[in-house]
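note to self: the first set is below, dont mix up w the second
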Amino acid sequence: MDELIFFNPGDSIGKFHDYNEAVSKAQIYREHHDIEDGHVLVVKGVSDDSQSFDIFLADNKVSHLESPENPDTDKPYKISKRF
């Protein structure tokens, strides 16, 4: 089952159209910033027109308990890979 998670798109570390490039950049980011395993995420937007992959830090996720769903401030993503 896909895990759905919400982020503010402005918190993205990077946006890529190629999955392999996103994974590579996420690995490099994690190594250069000495971040623990599982804290760098490659995610894909859930909208039908989403053809890109974003990189986020897990700590930047938005909880709907803290912030009600608002398309201007948060957006749903599916986790593709954790680093």
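second set (the one i keep forgetting abt)
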Amino acid sequence: MDAFPYSDAMVEMMAQPVVRLVYAAELEFKDGPARAHTGIGPLVIDGKTFTGVGSLGNVGEVVDQGDSSSAGSVTLTLSGWDNDVVKDTLQDRCRDRPGRLYLVAIDDDGELVADILYEGLMDAADLQYGGNGEDNAISVKITDQMVLWQRKGVEVWSDNSHRARHGGDRLLYAVAQLANWAIYWGAKKDSPGFKYT
């Protein structure tokens, strides 16, 4: 079953004779959120101010494979960046931090309706350097959480790693001993004694 992505308020707004549509993005970086929209000037959505980047901002096509085992994504691009933007982006890592893409409809009176079009986790930023011209660009891909299932695991299943993730929980205290422990399945012979550490 396909879900309809727009709220009733958005459908009503789009039915008006004159309406302007812009995209707005909210990216939750470690040092604070970055908010921008594809229009010009400031735009306030739910009490949050989004800065207009005009034609420097670009929103790619939403990629959705249509099955539950493939991650969907959308790529946001900011062109014409300067060195400060590059430095901030590289220092403020964004991978696995939340990101949202809104579709915003604005009528002639300045009233607006904003619907979340896509929400997920940011991937690492991709920098494209085209020299001193305006071919410079920073792209950030927002993926759904299915991408976490596709990554190879980096967690180690040991007592130390489990305690680091879950405080004093000692669920895996016996893993190191069990790795080389002799087990006599179906035999009357007892296994070696176990040492609780």
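remember for set 2: The longest strand covers residues 19-29.
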